[in-house]
Amino acid sequence: MKRWSVPEPGAAPGLVDVARRWAATLADTKGVTLPPEDLERFLLEVAHDAVDLADPGHDAALLRFTTLYAASPLGIALADPDGIIVEANDSLCRLLDRRPDQLRGRHLTELGATGHDVTRLKSGLEQLLSTDLERFGERVLLEHATDGQLWADATLIRLPGNRPGSRYPVLMVSDANELHLLQERLLHQNVHDPLTGLANQSSFTTKLEAALGTGARDQIALVYLDIDGFKVINDGLGLGVGDQVLKGVANKLSAVFNGRHDAFVARLSGDGFAILLRGDLAAPAVIELVERALEDLAEPIYLGGHGIGVSASAGIVVRAAIEGGAAELLRAAEIALHRAKEAGKAQWMLFDPELDARDRGRYQLGAVIAGALENGEFSLVYRPTVKLADTGQLAVVNAGLRWNHPEKGELDSDEFYPLAQTTGMTVPLGRWLLAESLAAAARWRGRYGEGAPDVCVRLPSRLAIDPDLVLLVKEQLDRHNLPALALRLCTDRDSVLDPRGEVLDSFAVLSDLGVQLVLCVSGSADLELIPQHRLPVHHVILSGPVVDALDAEEPAETDIRHLSQLVTRARELNLRIGAEGVRTHEQGARLRQLGVFAARGAFINDSATGDEVDELIARHSR
After folding, report:
1. 219 pairs with which residues across the strands?
2. What 3-state DSSP class applies to 600?
3. Number of C-beta neighbours around residue 85 at 10 A
4. Who's near 560: CB < 8 A, 6+ residues apart?
5. Chain Cα centroid distance, residue 483
6. What is the pTM of this model?
7. Please, are residues 521 and 487 in contact by the beta-carbon 8 Å criterion?
8. CA geometry: angle 491, 497, 503, nearest 5 deg
């Protein structure tokens, strides 16, 4: 008989007692050989004793596992070593809307809803059973008996078997459907415009940078498109109608561009859209698509009984993808769009590098106006208006701005005022002009007394509509102790009719203060603004074609008659009449014959800046 080995130190006390007792029993055979039946009985009793000793702990562990398995909110599938499901808990059955018998006998990987999901589960199972990987997790689509598919977070683990080296796979599943759909919705919102469903600006930027990335060899086209006058739709018909119009625009743009040249259509913000095209592109092909889009947008969209037509302006850039970065491309498209709007809207404009080089210089000029004003680069330039009966006598001194640019030299106001309008510097420049002009007028008063000429300042449109215009004028008059009659303020039709400000109220108050108001007119319609709006105007200045027509060697009778009618009507309104842009003495003489009192222009080639104006005044006073 084989001798039993001595139990190892540290063995469980119960097992040691069993081993010692049965060792003594088998050893005390009193020299009698045991038959096989008795030996089998003894060994069974050994086994029963061992089982009786181990059962309490084993049963408790088994009970704990069974309770956890049954009550777990996670769906759990127990499988044999080959991955065939042998048991599934209630949570898994509820999650997949199946009975336990419908899951038993199926392979774990067959729970995947698509071929892709089956492959992912299969890969995870193979890694789990053949490598040291202890767990495999993945979000997958599982088959659902009713809904077809269900997003779930699946985890595969392995449990040790009875035999050394044996492994039993277990699949644990949690419902991720709502979470996944929420994440997908949030992701969609992050990259799409919520109103139109188009890609948003963030998504567009990412797409553009990828298109211009390393290795890009395609031609690329960028179209910026802006709805013309969209504010009219919003303000006139309401934001709800405006939103519907934007949706209609998005649908039409998608219909024209999608499926062509790998098009990517996005809404950038407000009423602005962008289209990115890639591939074998040429400018004529891109222009053809843009023209088709503009035509489609012009077709009315019927909303609430209103047929709403939309016009749009577009800026187009076509170039090789390797030529410059995203910022340069975006800037080029923006410039082309601005040109289209400046040219009258409802049209496209192709980016022109030569025009861009010229405009870039202009924009650089506009960008530094604020610094130039602070650094004292602006000065006043004075031009006289003389009496036509005696051009040696001053009627008024006109004050304007001149920029003494350190690189470009002297720049007249018509070279920088449009840029100041764009950059918001019109009002600061106009305030400085008014303050310096009244300071000069005060100096003339101190030197020439009552014989000093009035100063005339032409108000930039933005300053004319400024709500603080009256306060500004009053402060400067008081600061320099000047009577209001010493100041003439000149404006034009556009400023009078500008809806953004209270121009008429401001002019009425200024007139009550004693300021003399002057209106530039180029025709009868301008002149009739005075009685229509009861403008407190004292002088009118004829300008433009009505004056230019008299510079001809033999002016046409119709032109003479037209100007004569203007003069007659101005006299009926008790206005003093002047003219600007007079080139020759002959032209001045004709204007005087027709009743014009004073004029300025090239026929009096005289101007001055700073202190030189005192000499100019003295010269004309003599």
Report:
1. 279, 320
2. strand
3. 21
4. 550, 590, 594
5. 50
6. 0.56
7. no
8. 60
